[in-house]
Amino acid sequence: MTAIDVATLRRRLAAGREMAVLDAREEGTFSKGHLFHATNVPLSSLELRLPALVPRPSTPLVWCDGGEGSELARRAKARAEQLGWTDQSVLDGGAAGWAESGGELYAGVHVVSKAFGEYVEHQYRTPCISAKELAALINDETAPVMLDARPAKEFRRMNIPGALNCPGGELVHRIADAAPDPETLIVVNCAGRTRSIIGAQSLRDAGVPNRVVALENGTMGWALAGLDLDHGREDVVRPPTAAARRWAKASVATVGRTYGVAEVDSTTVAAWMDETDRTTYLLDVRTPQEFEAGHVPASRNAPGGQLVQATDEYVATRNARIVLIDDDGVRATMTAAWLRRLGLSNTVVLAGGVEAADADQELIRGKSKRVAVDPVPSMKIAELARRLGEKGLAVLDIGTSYKFRTKGHIPGAWWGIRSRLEQARATIGAAEVLVLTSTDGRLAKLAVNDASALWPDAEVMALAGGNKAWRHTGHDMTKGFDRATTDPDDVWYKPYDHDDGQATEHMKNYLAWEVGLVDQVERDPLVSFPVFGQVAPLNG
Predict the structure, then answer these.
(1) Which residue of 138, 188, 502, 510 has the lowest C-beta tally within 10 Å?
(2) What angle do CA 112, 155, 337 make, to 5 degrees?
């Protein structure tokens, strides 16, 4: 095992070269305490996540875990080596060793982005409004325009009555149509704090003439104030008119100059993509619908608001180049300005956007960032439906515990975690036929060989299409969580995902955690955000 000690890792983090710190634990365990700069790549889903997060196989990787013998980190390193990653080491002592040496450990997920949101509020003095103050204004003659900066799925789940959905990356792009009267108050909200703050400050940075505020603590603050939330609505701010686009483009150009956002042409990007000693991410910051309608094959969809609020879901390699793509430069430039302020200084915008990429055949050819899944034995939905309940047949679901419990699972299925199949074997016992399933079946396919080694006398197969196919063919799903083979610590649960009747306490604890990140990063010598010349609100 190639090991790296804490002191060496600290020096490498400060050196400014490309590297990725990866934590191999399950998300729920990871969220209890991890390094600030670590990206969560659970061993159980490594093949599905690593290629996009660390696209260059020669990138230096440092694996860590909780520190209990570094078993997970060592297993992750071995698996990544099989897949082609060549420069890897394991952190001595893992997270525990880091803490013992005086390093900070951070709870939660998306910590870098969350801490940055709190930093922005403090540095830019982004104004906010309380839920009760907003509620008093809603029925007034001069009611505010309320914009929910979350993706549509989150908005549908719960939203403030009267709010319109406008994902964070779209705010500047669409605001001229959404709030044409400069006298109208604009309120931006999310579920908690980060996207509310970033969204409101985006509009202020762009010079929107209106008074713009963030809703203090988002929909959680609304619920904690005893106010009712709506559910299921799909009221969305429409795509911008030509006039709105012109205003947004002129406004964002000023923001881009303020924060040093550069454009590069497609020929340069094509050359970057061919380099073997540098990493270049191509991220398309448009909406998922636009991305699906046509995009650069080598790019990944990362809607601007989500990219800023959960950067570690898209980028794991520190000091890599990031090229943002849109259609007219508005969303890419605004997102780039935020990423540069977050510390991703090598972020640029593709000049001409998708049209320029279409014209450059070298760029659109791109490279695949997915690991191919070898063919494995599979069982069709109809066969499993016919044989379900048959003696000697067991079904093991290795999707998330959250979906197993709330979205439903195949009747009689066990639940487990791929990296803990030994526990599943001990709980389930012998089987003549073992059918593995997961959300869409990909993870189940990856686990067939692992399971075959533990059930050598069984016929081990993956369910073709997984749970989605089972559901879409009209078969019943069962809810509940009474057939678990291991602890359900694979997922970080949002405050409103818990079913223990303590929603209020979970929300309060979450909000206190977010606010407290400012103090924690201030005492961490390895954490800082760039200071640009302009830190006061750009529109006063």
Answers:
(1) 502
(2) 40
Q: pLDDT tens for residues 151-180?
A: 999 999 999 999 999 999 999 999 999 999
Q: How far is CA 179 from the centre of its chain?
A: 29
End residue of a domain, out of 310, 342, 364: 364
In sign, the C-alpha dihedral spanning 87, 92, 94, 97 is: negative
In a domain, 51, yes or no: yes
Half-sphere exposure (Cβ direction) of 297: Cα atoms closer than 13 Å: 12
Which of 338, 334, 356, 354 lies closest to 174, judged by CA? 334
Cα distances (Å, whole numbers) of residue 12 to 7, 318, 520: 9, 11, 22
What amino acid is encoded at 236 in this protein?
A: V
Please calculate the CA angle 526-531-532 and round it to the nearest 5 degrees.
155
Q: How many residues does the chain have?
A: 540
- Evaluated on CA atoms 48, 51, 57, 61, the torsion sign reads negative
The token duo for 16 is: 């400014």
Going by C-alpha positions, the residue among 471, 469, 429, 477 that lies closest to residue 445 is 469
CA–CA separation, 384 and 470 (whole Å): 9
Same domain, residue pair 72 and 126: no
What is the CATH classification number for the domain harbouring 193? 3.40.250.10
Range of the domain at 306: 260-364
Radius of gyration of the chain (CA): 24
**How far apart are the C-alpha atoms of 445 and 194, rounded to whole Å?**
37
pLDDT 10s digits, 22-49: 999 999 999 999 999 999 999 999 999 9
Nearest Cα to Cα of residue 229 among 144, 300, 163, 303: 163
Cα gap 433→456, rounded to integer Å: 11
Helices 194-205, 111-124: inter-axial angle, 10-degree rounding: 50
